[in-house]
Amino acid sequence: MNLTRTSCFLSLILRHKPETIGISLDEHGWANVDELIEGISKTREFNMDILEEIVRTDEKERYSFNEDKTLIRANQGHSIPVDVELEKVEPPEELWHGTGEKYVSSIDEIGLIRKSRLYVHLSKDKETAVKVGSRHGKPVIYTVKAREMYQDGYEFFLSKNGVWLTKEVPVKYLEKIVKE
């Protein structure tokens, strides 16, 4: 069994297409664990032990169980409308966004937009942003003037796994880091 492929499938279900296995998410993004296991088991080997292993070993801490492990949800990254009950938080002075070269002209023109997701994802440090950007080819890093945005009325949220979220980042709050 390939745990990585199963984790990717779980991500698809809990963030984008629960109907793929015939389940639905509640308004807060929670899925019934028994229904999830039953649905995934129709396509591959899957049980509670495998689900717990995926949640426990996921480097990005994408998933959370409720207290009695009867419900599970993705912490962020949804393209379907759910309210994962994020608290508004005052951000640090600056945050970071990593992307690939192919997106730079669009970002420089219109800023960071959420596209199909509910939020723009930002990193707490430059190193994480570089990792994220590297997934899209040669990384390009932007500094986000988060505190200034916040003072101008933009809302920020911090997901359970440490990813900063906001609805958009206009160009005036971005500074591209150019490697020399």
From TrEMBL:
<comment type="function">
    <text>Removes the 2'-phosphate from RNA via an intermediate in which the phosphate is ADP-ribosylated by NAD followed by a presumed transesterification to release the RNA and generate ADP-ribose 1''-2''-cyclic phosphate (APPR&gt;P). May function as an ADP-ribosylase.</text>
</comment>
<comment type="similarity">
    <text>Belongs to the KptA/TPT1 family.</text>
</comment>
<dbReference type="InterPro" id="IPR042081">
    <property type="entry name" value="RNA_2'-PTrans_C"/>
</dbReference>
<keyword id="KW-0808">Transferase</keyword>
<dbReference type="Pfam" id="PF01885">
    <property type="entry name" value="PTS_2-RNA"/>
</dbReference>
<keyword id="KW-0520">NAD</keyword>
<protein>
    <recommendedName>
        <fullName>Probable RNA 2'-phosphotransferase</fullName>
        <ecNumber>2.7.1.-</ecNumber>
    </recommendedName>
</protein>
<dbReference type="InterPro" id="IPR022928">
    <property type="entry name" value="RNA_2'-PTrans_KptA"/>
</dbReference>
<dbReference type="InterPro" id="IPR042080">
    <property type="entry name" value="RNA_2'-PTrans_N"/>
</dbReference>
<dbReference type="InterPro" id="IPR002745">
    <property type="entry name" value="Ptrans_KptA/Tpt1"/>
</dbReference>
